[in-house]
Amino acid sequence: MSSASAAAAAAAVDTCGIAACSAASSAAAAVTATAEAVAAAKRFENDDACGDWVYPLGAFGLEFQAANALSAMCFVAAGAHVLWKADTPIARAYGLMVCSVGLGSFSYHATTSLSGFIIDIVPMAVTAGLMLFRATHALQVDAGETGPSAETTRFLVSMGSAVFAVYVPWAMMAAGVSHYTVWGVWALLFGSMGALFGVICLMVFFNEGILNGKPGIDLAVAIACVLLGLGCSVHSFIPGLCEGWRTILPLHALWHVFSSITANRCGYLLDTMTKLVETMEDPANSCNKKTKGNSLLVRLLKRDILPSQFSSEEARHRPSPRRVAEPSSRGGEGRSPFDGRPPPTAAERPEI
Hints:
The chain is built from eleven helices and two strands.
């Protein structure tokens, strides 16, 4: 074989080797890209981990968010306290579900998986459903709606709302919607249920004259803490905010701390609301029997915004045994003829 033929053969071998190496590299890159795509498809991608200590979980493509996962245990403590201290069965059930919120939140932040996100939001929706159930019950009793039909209505409202709040985020994820948007929609749905419970608590407690006591303090603490928590976690559903000082602190972990306090106070609000509704619903308490008419909100607006037209009529038709009237400071004006004493006997009555 001539030297020219040998050189050509060697060049051909080199070319084949280069082509083989290139093909192998391309195949390896494709496999890596596929693995990364599969791993990304399993993760719920938002900025909850901003400022957290994040550790990869082997070859699974998932991540462990240390501060977020550990701070989720605040919900277990908050729920256990309600479970131990509450008086009513529904409040104790709420406490148990708040403990489940902690376990679900830990499962999500310990993996950042899509399935973990669903496990995270389901018990949260259940707790909101329990609060909405009792809030609806209070409005029904105030409006005079009782019986099996009213009970069916409040079950449908509370359970339907909880299912809707979970199903919509799942459907959005299945449709390929951005996880930031999914998180924002979930926060809106869940927050709306909690806000509705808070508004109804405010109206009922004010109407029954107990807003200045412990229920009012619990409500104020719950509102303040949830607002502080939202301020710490706004970057989770608005892209591009995880920068600067937010990359230093695990702010989503602070959301867990503040919102667990809110969850704890809501448990006691639910307990108070349940006992109040039972008192309103008691047939022996004739002063609390309601008749269908204007809603509670309309009556409050009439009484507080237009007092000159409606206050005196409301006072005549709506007695409340939970309020103790204070004696008048001006002689006998506004007081009963006997000033709280039993009426005199026939022998004691003065002759006319």
